[in-house]
């Protein structure tokens, strides 16, 4: 039985990609935790906003080389045209790769979820991650997490599931990508007082 467990564990490592620190473990519990986290990240659609896209004949798809690395820092900040985000027209606008969003809250940029220590979640602890998704505060104590991030929904997950998501994110290849700071409503098109 032990030989079969090792083969299954090795297969999971290949599927998950052995580039991250967590994925290099031989601990079958950690391998299962990472696999659960990957499942939840995919089920939750995290790549829809947190992964830059490449255009295909079927439309935009996540760029496999930059999965979950957030809104590209090299992308210039282009705001929607004045008057386009009004309740009688559109309440929300997004970039072509769906990693930056504009609305009544201003402009938000999808966070880098890779374990890069400078620009991603590499300096975060599991407790900080869980607290951020429970409170809707960056790092669990900072500025509010902005739309369209559904932290209210994800924050209802069990501790075990949030820890699995964090374990999976920590297993990814770190990608250096410092996202833009949010733009407050007063500075965004149609912003006011």
Throw out a few tags for this protein.
single chain, 193 residues, alpha+beta, 6 helices, 5 strands
What does this structure look like?
With 193 residues, the chain is α+β, with helices and mostly antiparallel strands. It has one domain. The protein contains six helices and five strands, in the order αααβββββααα. The strands form two sheets. It has a three-stranded antiparallel β-sheet with strand order 3-4-5, with no helix packed on it. A hairpin with a 2-residue loop joins strand 1 (53-56) and strand 2. It is globular.
Largest sheet: 3 strands, antiparallel
Tell me the strand order in the biggest sheet. 3-4-5
Number of strands: 5
Number of domains: 1
In one word, what is the shape?
globular
Helix count?
Answer: 6
What average pLDDT do the residues reach? 83
Q: Which range does the strand content fall in?
A: 5-15%
Radius of gyration: 18 Å
Task: Offer a concise description of the structure.
By secondary structure, this protein is of the alpha+beta class. Helix content is 33%, strand content 9%.
Lay out the secondary structure.
Blueprint: H1 2-16, H2 28-43, H3 46-50, E1 53-56, E2 59-62, E3 93-94, E4 100-103, E5 106-109, H4 126-135, H5 151-154, H6 159-171
Antiparallel strand pairs: 1-2, 3-4, 4-5
Helix pairs in contact: 1-2, 2-6, 4-6
């Amino acid at each position: 039985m032990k030989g079969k467990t090792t083969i299954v564990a090795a297969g999971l490592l290949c599927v998950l990609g052995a580039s991250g620190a967590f994925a290099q473990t031989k601990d079958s519990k950690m391998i299962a935790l990472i696999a659960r986290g990957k499942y939840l990240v995919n089920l939750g659609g995290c790549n829809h906003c947190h992964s830059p896209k490449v255009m295909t004949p079927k439309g935009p798809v996540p760029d496999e080389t930059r999965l979950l690395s957030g809104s590209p820092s090299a992308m210039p900040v282009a705001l929607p045209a004045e008057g386009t985000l009004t309740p009688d027209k559109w309440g929300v606008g997004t970039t072509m790769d769906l990693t930056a969003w504009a609305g009544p809250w201003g402009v938000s940029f999808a966070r880098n979820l890779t374990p890069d220590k400078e620009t991603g979640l590499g300096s975060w602890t599991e407790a900080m991650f869980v607290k951020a998704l429970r409170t809707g505060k960056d790092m669990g104590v900072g500025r509010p997490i902005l739309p369209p991030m559904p932290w209210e929904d994800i924050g209802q997950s069990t501790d075990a599931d949030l820890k699995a998501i964090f374990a999976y994110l920590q297993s990814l290849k770190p990608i250096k990508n410092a996202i833009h700071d949010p733009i407050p409503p007063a500075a965004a098109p149609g912003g006011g007082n």
